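Bench log. Compound arrived from synthesis this morning; before running ITC I wanted a structural hypothesis for how pyridoxal-5'-phosphate sits in the protein. Inputs:
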Amino acid sequence: MKPLDISTRLLHADRQSPIEHGAVHKPLHIATAYGYSQAEELVAVFQGRQSGHVYGRQGNPTTTALEAKVSLLEDAVGTISFASGMGALCSTMLALLKKGDHVIASRYLFGNTASWMQTLEQIGCEVTLVDATEAAHVAAAVTPATRMVLVETIANPRTQVADLQGIGKVCAQHGLVYFVDSTMTTPALFQPKDVGASLIIHSLSKSICGHGNALGGSVSDTGLFDWDKYPNLQATYRKGPATGWGLLQIRKKGLRDVGATLSSEHGHRIAVGAETLALRMERACSNALALARWLEAQPLVSRVHYPGLPSHAQHERAGGLFSGFGALLGFETQPQADPIALLNALQLVIKSSHLGDNRTLAIPVAHTIFWEMGPQQRKSMDIADSLVRVSVGIEAQDDLLADFSQAFASLKAA
Ligand SMILES: *Cc1c(COP(=O)(O)O)cnc(C)c1O
């Protein structure tokens, strides 16, 4: 029999181990603490000689089941879940970096990640922001203190596509942790392991959950990084095969000490949402492509940013790497068209931040999610004042296009 498709495996993943009463879902485990009949067992679990749960801050059987699913999707050796994508990102970097370390990050980052880069500098790491659409910029920034390179596959919100393959080679050559935020692509479109990623981060709050009803994040280890060569791992976590060392330190120094733990309720909702990830992404990507093409033909639109359009600077790269161009697009309006008035005229599309939802959401970027950083940093990230970000949902395509059509028509009439 040929290996099962990833969606098929995901749907049947929980039943690979015995589940109470033959339930088809892993149930919600809400206990904070886990008891053992023998003290020796408790000791063995604490010392990592026996698997098991001790205290809910380090996870529970429900989140463990979700972690196994994310590992399956990413072909990872292991995954740790967190309370949010930011929880995953900050906890992981705190666990792996030390004062004096150097991090290279893409200049094109999700706003809160960019804000976290500033905090990281304040606590003693050096951060160099580079144009990650060319690996040469990353290579040029490497110093003896460099430990990690952080990029987004498709950048939120301007959709630049990093030179993922080239950067993977730079990281391999210099022994750097290659930390890839694949929130925009999801495992339905792309597996960062294929370009040499060491760690993969997802905001599970977005498309993987899809229904806008849970927050979560994850970090997966692809098994490609040689942790034996990483200088910041503590001796206590260098036990057993080296493939597990990085995640062990992230679970202890990151999840346990920081405490950004995913709740079992949210973990369960994310796991259920993930079952339809491939179906939803297919629909959302085809809607996004149709909307991007339609917008590009509008006289009141000056630019459309969507990797699926031949006009996108990394269109060919995206086509070669991803099995779809994503559900996120951006467009800029002509000076005579006020993006705020346009958003007000939309009747179906929701004016909201968040993305990767089943519903289509739109937001004026410079006025909201990128407001705090100021005009200078916005300019360096190529965020125009009129940029509108659209997270395309799974509504019927005709209904979506009709809503944009009537909104643009109302602007012209005004
Ligand atoms: C939303 C997002 C995050 C943060 O995730 P939360 O779950 O909202 O904390 C990180 N990276 C990208 C690319 C995102 O879009």
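What the model suggests: Residues 84-86, 110, 113, 152, 156, 181, 183-184, 203, 205-206, 215, 217 surround pyridoxal-5'-phosphate (CB under 6 Å). The radius of gyration is 22 Å.
ITC booked for Thursday regardless.
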